[in-house]
Amino acid sequence: MEKKRDLKSLMEILFVSTRLGLTSFGGPVAHLGYFHEEYIRRRKWMDEKSYADLVALCQFLPGPASSQVGIGIGVMRAGVLGGLLAFIGFTLPSVIALILFALLLQGFDVSTAGWIQGLKIVAVAVVAHAVLGMAKNLTPDLQRKAIALFALVGTLLWQTAFTQVGVILLSGLVGYLIYKNHQLDEESSFHFPISRKLGTICLALFFGFLIFLPIVREMTTLNWVAMFDSFYRAGSLVFGGGHVVLPLLEREFVPTGWLSEEAFLAGYSATQAVPGPLFTFAAYLGTVISGWQGGLLATVAVFLPAFLLILGALPFWDVLRRNSKIKGALMGVNAAVVGILISALYHPIWTSSILSAIDFAFAAILFSMLVYWKLPPWVIVLTGAIGGTIIAMF
C-alpha cells in the first residue's frame, strides 16, 4: 500500500535527503552505506531485505545507482513525489557547488594553471581506485575477466560512442550464453507502491526520448536540443555508475570543441571534492558550455533516464530478478564496465595527466592516500590542487 503523502512526511524526506546530499562523500558505494545507516538503521523506513533488493535492482539498471536507490526509498516512503524530493535533496547541493565552480573558472586560462594539473592527477588516482574496487567485485572468474579484456581492447582501439554501446550489448549477449543457467538464491517477494501502468509509461518515455531526441537534433540547429540529447544519451547508456560516464561525456563534448580537455578533467576532479552523486559532473559541463542555465539543463537531461528507469522497473522487478537468463546478461555487462573503466583510465585521463616522472610519483602518493590511508576524497582533491601548484613552480 502507498504511504500517506502528507506534508510532514514529504518535508522529512526533503530534509533528510538534503542533509545526506551535503555530507555523503566517497562515491556510490559509500552513499549506499550512508543510506543504510540513515534510512534503514536509524529511521527504519524499509527493512533490510527490501533495501538489499532495491540496491540489487539499481545495480542492474543504467545510471547512477546511489541516486536510484535514494529515489526508490523516497517512493516507498511517500510515492512518486517522495522519490522526486529524495532525489532533489540528495543531488541539489553538489549541482549548485559545481555550477559555481564552473562560473568561477570562466575568464581563467585553465590549461596552464598548476592546480588544474594537480586536479588532473587526482583523477588518475580516483579512477584507478574505482578500477580496483569494481574489478574485484565484477570480474571474480576467468570468463568475466575475458569479457573485461574484450571491452578494454574494443573501446581503446575504436573510440566512439557507438563502440561503447556495441561492447555493452555484445557483453550482455556473451554473459547470457555463459551464465543463463547460473543458480540463484531463494528470494522473497518484494512490492512497490507503483502501478504497472505507470511503470509502463515511464519505460515508454525512456525509450521514446532515446530514439527520437537524435532525430529532433538532426532536424534543428538549436544548441540546447543537441546538449539535451548528448547528456540524456550518456545518462541512458552508462552501466556501472558515475565513473563510467566519463568516457561517454568526454567523447560527446571534447572532440566536438564544446569545451577543452583541460576544462573537462578539471571539472571531473572537482566533482570528487563535493558530496552527492558523481553524475552532477554534468552540471559543471553544462555551465561551461552554456552558463548556469546550461548547467541546470544538463542536470535534468543526465538524470532523467535514471528517474524514468527506476520508476519503470520497480513494478516488474520481482518477476525479472528471478530470471537467471536476465541476471546472466547483466553479469556480462557489469564485467564489460571494468574494461571500459580501464580504457578511460588510459585515455583521456592518463595520457593527458601523467606527463613526467614527478607526475607519476605524485599520482602514486595520492593513490596511496586514498586507498591505503583511506583519507576522504576532499583531502585528496585539496592535496592535488596544492601539490600541482607547487610542482608548477619548479
UniProtKB/TrEMBL annotation:
Task: Report the membrane topology from the UniProt record.
Answer: Multi-pass membrane protein
Q: Which residues cross the membrane?
A: 84-108, 114-135, 147-178, 198-219, 231-249, 295-317, 329-347, 353-373
Record keywords, A-Z: Cell membrane, Membrane, Transmembrane, Transmembrane helix
What InterPro entries does this protein's entry cite?
Answer: Chr_Tranpt_l_chain, Chromate_transpt
GO CC list: plasma membrane
Keyword GTP-binding present in the record's keywords: the answer is no
Q: GO molecular function terms here?
A: chromate transmembrane transporter activity
Task: Give the primary localization class.
Answer: membrane
Localized where? Cell membrane
Taxonomy, superkingdom: Bacteria
PANTHER family registered for this protein in UniProt = CHROMATE ION TRANSPORTER (EUROFUNG)
What family classification does the UniProt entry report for this protein? Belongs to the chromate ion transporter (CHR) (TC 2.A.51) family.
Q: What's the protein name?
A: ChrA protein
Organism placement in taxonomy: Bacteria, Bacillati, Bacillota, Bacilli, Bacillales
